[in-house]
Amino acid sequence: MFDRYEGGDTAILVHVDLPAEVDREDLSELQLLANSAGVETLAVVTGSRSAPSPKYFVGSGKAEEIAWQVKQHHADVVIFNHALSPTQERNLEKICECRVLDRTGLILDIFAQRARTHEGKLQVELAQLRHISTRLVRGWTHLERQKGGIGLRGPGETQLETDRRLIRGRIKNILRRLERVQKQREQGRRARRRAEVPTVSLVGYTNAGKSTLFNRMTEASVYAADQLFATLDPTLRKHYIEDVGDVIFADTVGFIRHLPHDLVAAFKATLQEVQEAELLLHVVDVSDEQQQQNIEQVQEVLEEIDADEVPQLMICNKIDCVDDATARIDYDDEKQPIRVWVSAQHGIGLALIEQAIRERLGPQMVELTLKLPPSMGKLRGTLYQMNSVTDEHVDDAGQIAMHVRLSAVDWKRLDKQFDHCLNDLIEPSPTEH
């Protein structure tokens, strides 16, 4: 669709130090992103500027240095650790005579490689088309297709206009299909709300260990690797937690510094699992020197998707990589768990996560003794299915005395199921008169 140079697998990376905090990026993260995209880094060009240049982003001397490095190493592509305007990309491609990608383009490329499900592929294509639509200004002046000949003279439609129209049509088509996916997800969420099954979503900076933790907690087999954006497609799994009951765990795409807005918009359906969760497990890599900045970036994205009000439990992961760190739960002044220290890779402290979730989500529990006549065998079987029976014995009259412990919600649901007769079966405690 473009009059552009072909891409490739060998790259020159470019990183510019800028004084403004909002423009600042991390070079090591760019190298990780390039590695995750399967790119071989041939050289890294660094520099510093007080502000980006409108023409090349870098100065003209630095642009010539980048072009020299491309020729010297026979590189296929130049990757900038910054967001470039379409004009800057075009000017850089002209001087370097190879494909130029900015940080957003690189992240979109990784997402395109990782998407597995139909929904994931649609979301990535939508983000790519929105990104591409701003870059259709390049290289079409010589390809204008004007109708000519007797009776056919007129302005016609240029190739650029045709491509813009085609992209707009494709975006509308994808949005319609994603809307259907969103409705299906909403139906699933409504069913879970009716059944009062809470959702716990795992969020965090990319490569913090969310998928490894998810696999450990739910015995799932989600792809987990030491690379950025290993997980792209959302995965839901049911897991039973004592005193809480069934809980839906949702593994989500990792966040990253300056996550492209097109991606946030495209993944709206997926990120709704985060918005509507009862609890967020914010997974943090405590061995990362930039953990505080990563936490702030995750909070920024949560604000952007209106999920910053959802209660959070911080999971301090990778304690095996930190000296003197032990598995434990940290509590606030109100005795609420706020942090759990674990190692998902080695399975250390996972029971503490369940304990913390139980303390955060655990409903009011009901403990009582029921006297069941022999005819109430179905109720007895149901209570055993719910793992609610702590003790039972049969008296001389053949009645079953059952000690049960279950949530107040489950008790109400059970009472409704058995025509509100359960309160008549409760054995008064010795202190009651």
From TrEMBL:
<dbReference type="InterPro" id="IPR006073">
    <property type="entry name" value="GTP-bd"/>
</dbReference>
<dbReference type="GO" id="GO:0097216">
    <property type="term" value="F:guanosine tetraphosphate binding"/>
</dbReference>
<keyword id="KW-0547">Nucleotide-binding</keyword>
<feature type="binding site">
    <location>
        <begin position="229"/>
        <end position="233"/>
    </location>
    <ligand>
        <name>GTP</name>
    </ligand>
</feature>
<dbReference type="Pfam" id="PF01926">
    <property type="entry name" value="MMR_HSR1"/>
</dbReference>
<comment type="function">
    <text>GTPase that associates with the 50S ribosomal subunit and may have a role during protein synthesis or ribosome biogenesis.</text>
</comment>
<comment type="subunit">
    <text>Monomer. Associates with the 50S ribosomal subunit.</text>
</comment>
<feature type="binding site">
    <location>
        <position position="211"/>
    </location>
    <ligand>
        <name>Mg(2+)</name>
    </ligand>
</feature>
<protein>
    <recommendedName>
        <fullName>GTPase HflX</fullName>
    </recommendedName>
</protein>
<dbReference type="GO" id="GO:0003924">
    <property type="term" value="F:GTPase activity"/>
</dbReference>
<keyword id="KW-0460">Magnesium</keyword>
<dbReference type="InterPro" id="IPR035647">
    <property type="entry name" value="EFG_III/V"/>
</dbReference>
<feature type="domain" description="Hflx-type G">
    <location>
        <begin position="198"/>
        <end position="365"/>
    </location>
</feature>
<feature type="binding site">
    <location>
        <begin position="343"/>
        <end position="345"/>
    </location>
    <ligand>
        <name>GTP</name>
    </ligand>
</feature>
<dbReference type="InterPro" id="IPR032305">
    <property type="entry name" value="GTP-bd_M"/>
</dbReference>
<feature type="binding site">
    <location>
        <position position="231"/>
    </location>
    <ligand>
        <name>Mg(2+)</name>
    </ligand>
</feature>
<dbReference type="InterPro" id="IPR025121">
    <property type="entry name" value="GTPase_HflX_N"/>
</dbReference>
<dbReference type="GO" id="GO:0005525">
    <property type="term" value="F:GTP binding"/>
</dbReference>
<keyword id="KW-0963">Cytoplasm</keyword>
<dbReference type="InterPro" id="IPR042108">
    <property type="entry name" value="GTPase_HflX_N_sf"/>
</dbReference>
<feature type="binding site">
    <location>
        <begin position="204"/>
        <end position="211"/>
    </location>
    <ligand>
        <name>GTP</name>
    </ligand>
</feature>
<dbReference type="InterPro" id="IPR016496">
    <property type="entry name" value="GTPase_HflX"/>
</dbReference>
<dbReference type="GO" id="GO:0005737">
    <property type="term" value="C:cytoplasm"/>
</dbReference>
<dbReference type="InterPro" id="IPR027417">
    <property type="entry name" value="P-loop_NTPase"/>
</dbReference>
<dbReference type="Pfam" id="PF16360">
    <property type="entry name" value="GTP-bdg_M"/>
</dbReference>
<feature type="binding site">
    <location>
        <begin position="317"/>
        <end position="320"/>
    </location>
    <ligand>
        <name>GTP</name>
    </ligand>
</feature>
<dbReference type="GO" id="GO:0046872">
    <property type="term" value="F:metal ion binding"/>
</dbReference>
<dbReference type="Pfam" id="PF13167">
    <property type="entry name" value="GTP-bdg_N"/>
</dbReference>
<feature type="binding site">
    <location>
        <begin position="251"/>
        <end position="254"/>
    </location>
    <ligand>
        <name>GTP</name>
    </ligand>
</feature>
<keyword id="KW-0479">Metal-binding</keyword>
<dbReference type="GO" id="GO:0043022">
    <property type="term" value="F:ribosome binding"/>
</dbReference>
<keyword id="KW-0342">GTP-binding</keyword>
<dbReference type="InterPro" id="IPR030394">
    <property type="entry name" value="G_HFLX_dom"/>
</dbReference>
<comment type="similarity">
    <text>Belongs to the TRAFAC class OBG-HflX-like GTPase superfamily. HflX GTPase family.</text>
</comment>
